[in-house]
Write a structure and sequence with these properties.
Helices cover 31% and strands 23% of the residues. It contains nine helices and 16 strands. Helix 6 runs parallel beside helix 7 and helix 8 crosses helix 9. The mean pLDDT is 97. This is asparaginase. Its EC number is 3.5.1.1. Belongs to the asparaginase 1 family.
């Protein structure tokens, strides 16, 4: 029989209401009991936090735990808070060896809600993991999405996740799994012992270079520009990005729009960033781009942009 592991890390799916607000209290065993599954599942409490409080070191530790768990399980399901689920999904994909199904799920409603969505999401994730398709995915609201490119697209709706430009890989309805597509292997490196600081700098009308300068001054090893449209930034930010690249600090560009790829098209904006050597991160979100750059810096410090570009070409990020 297929052996699955359930790694619970907290999040809304495991919260109950308290006088101070929702707090994590449900264990992995509690979550598993809600699914009434007949699958062979070992529940493990890997963490117990709300995902907005997670650190890069904790994400790196989770990636190592997932890799270790894959050695003894036929599939792994991670329950996680939805606030940063897409970032953890990216890190797990970047550090996965590709042999074992790993899927991440969560909930929009708490454990003690009268009509929780967690049990259905978790049951679907367990069924998908047992299905045996290798790779890292996100299972949510009956759909399975590729970890690379997935985004949280709604703060409240039960259908909170999507993969713009890609769509779902599969759907899960009870015991029935229907596949639509297969995601390519996504591993870039082994799970790191730690991840370097990479900051995200947002673009908005009139943005000056204070934020990107502060990021570098605070010790960021890399910077991601959450750019206008197809990859543009204000002139002060472009100028500072060029300076950082000249100093050997990699700069990546991702769109703030929510979907669609970036490209170096416009004079004084994206074209100037491209000429300066910035990494254009295709249609990845700024948040997933940050994890890509951090893993590339950790694993390939001599050429993180080259390593990231090779990975993007291999997995079809465009």
């Amino acid at each position: 029989m297929t052996r699955l592991a359930l790694l619970a890390t907290g999040g809304t799916i495991a919260t109950r209401g308290t006088a101070d607000g929702r707090a994590v209290s449900a264990t992995a065993a509690d979550l598993l009991a809600t699914t009434q599954t007949d699958l062979d599942v070992t529940p493990v409490d890997a963490a117990g936090r709300l995902s907005f409080a997670a650190t890069l070191d904790e994400l790196a530790a989770l990636a190592r735990t997932v890799r270790e768990t894959c050695a003894s399980a036929d599939g792994v399901v991670v329950t996680h808070g939805t606030d940063t689920l897409e970032e953890t999904a990216a890190l797990l994909a970047l550090t996965h060896d590709g042999a074992t199904p790993v899927t991440i799920t969560g909930a929009q409603r708490p454990f003690d809600d009268p009509a929780p969505d967690g049990p259905t999401n978790l049951a679907a994730a367990l069924r998908w993991a047992a299905h045996g398709r290798p790779g890292v995915t996100v299972t949510f609201a009956g759909h399975v999405f590729p970890a690379v490119g997935v985004r949280k697209v709604d703060a409240e709706a039960l259908t909170a996740f999507a993969a713009p430009g890609r769509g779902p890989l599969a759907s899960v309805d009870g015991d029935r799994v229907r596949e639509h597509a297969v995601a390519p292997p996504t591993g870039l490196a082994d799970p790191p012992s730690g991840l370097p600081r990479v900051d995200v700098v947002a673009q908005y009308v009139g943005a000056d270079d204070h934020a990107i300068t502060a990021a570098a001054d605070a010790g960021a090893r890399g910077v991601v520009i959450a750019a206008f449209g197809a990859g543009n930034a204000t002139p002060p930010v472009v100028g500072k990005a060029r300076e950082l690249l000249d100093r050997g600090i990699p700069v990546a560009v991702a769109s703030r729009t929510g979907s669609g790829p970036v490209a170096g098209l416009y004079a004084g904006g994206g074209a100037e960033l491209a000429r300066a050597g910035a990494l254009f991160a295709g249609d990845l979100s700024p948040w997933q781009t940050r994890l890509l750059l951090a893993v590339a810096l950790a694993a390939h410090p001599d050429d993180p942009i080259g390593a990231a570009q090779e990975w993007m070409a291999r997995v079809g990020v465009g």
